[in-house]
Design a protein that fits this description.
alpha/beta, Phenylalanine Hydroxylase, two-stranded antiparallel sheet, binds fe (ii) ion
Length: 304
């Protein structure tokens, strides 16, 4: 989710491996003529790890085109991932596994038993959708690039999660400047199979469909950011991650306990607090329990 609905350009990060979850919901930039005369569907910023890699840029365009040609209702197109892309996935999974054991909330870990992602190969969205169909009915719908925050949230009301399919650049496997298939699947897919997570996502969707005021929607987007992307919950006195941005980010999971200011879960304050998607989060909010967090979110969203 972005601070501004008009912010539709990919966000450039300068360090670390953290992912700007839906601060930059994937973008569909206008097609442009490339120097070689080809259509460039996906624009990368000059400091993107893949900016100087012509093969990677072509790959991004290929995967974006799959989504652009996709017609809702058909099976989600399968991406023929390369050995290099599968290797990046394996690398990320290996690094995140011990961190999940230490920091993931129990609801996420429980959901991971229902949505079992293969650690050695990148799962296909269509296959994950088949698992989700028997666990609450959410589904992934492929998108080529950034959509507006309101559009992203509105689809949640239909139990539909807009998702990218591309892989981050292989040169920095623990870093991505945009939400990629790692973030979508490791951060979000299991949560969509967990009833409380799914309910919370749907609540945001219904709020987005109902609300028209852009300032109010900015607050809703911040709330999504601080809860389902970067939220924490207390379990037996320990801090656990519920947010997909945290759960899919090696660097942020490693450091948040020492470096972030941990505040009590407070939807009003969260909706009024801007965030910086270009760096590790300096403020995180922790709920006393996951159930109480969802109740607080529900009450607040319904009050808008
Ligand atoms: Fe996300």
């Amino acid at each position: 989710m972005s601070e501004s609905e008009s912010q539709v350009r990919p966000i450039t990060l300068t360090h670390g491996d953290r992912i700007p979850p839906r601060a930059a919901v994937p973008v569909v930039p206008p097609p442009e003529k490339h120097a070689g005369g080809e259509i460039e569907l996906v624009e990368l910023s000059a400091d993107h790890p893949g900016f100087f890699d012509a093969t990677y840029r072509q790959r991004r365009n290929e995967i974006a085109r799959l989504a652009l040609n996709y017609v809702d209702g058909a099976p989600v197109p399968r991406v023929e991932y390369t050995p290099q892309e599968h290797a990046v996935w394996r690398d990320v999974c290996e690094h995140l596994k011990p961190l999940h054991e230490r920091y993931a909330c129990r609801e996420y870990l429980d959901a991971c038993t229902r949505i079992q992602l293969t650690p050695d190969r990148i799962p296909q969205l269509e296959d994950v959708n088949a698992m989700l169909a028997t666990s609450g009915g959410f589904r992934f719908l492929p998108v080529a690039g950034l959509v507006s925050g309101t559009m992203f949230l509105s689809y949640l009301a239909q139990k539909t999660f807009l998702s990218t399919q591309y892989m981050r650049h292989h040169s920095v496997p623990l870093y991505t400047p945009e939400p990629d298939v790692v973030h979508e699947l490791i951060g979000h897919s299991a949560t969509l199979a967990q009833p409380l997570f799914a309910k919370a996502n749907e609540m945001f969707g219904h709020a987005a469909v109902r609300l028209n005021d852009s300032d109010v929607m900015t607050g809703v987007a911040r709330l999504y950011w601080y809860s389902l992307e970067f939220g924490l919950v207390r379990e037996d006195g320990a801090l656990k991650a519920i947010g997909a941005g945290l759960l899919s980010s090696f660097g942020e999971l490693e450091r948040f306990e020492k470096h972030a200011s941990i505040r009590p879960f407070n939807p009003e304050e969260m909706a009024a607090t801007p965030y910086d998607p270009t760096t590790y989060q300096s403020i995180l909010y922790v709920g006393e329990s996951f159930e109480s967090m969802v109740e607080q979110l529900d009450r607040f969203l319904q009050s808008l």
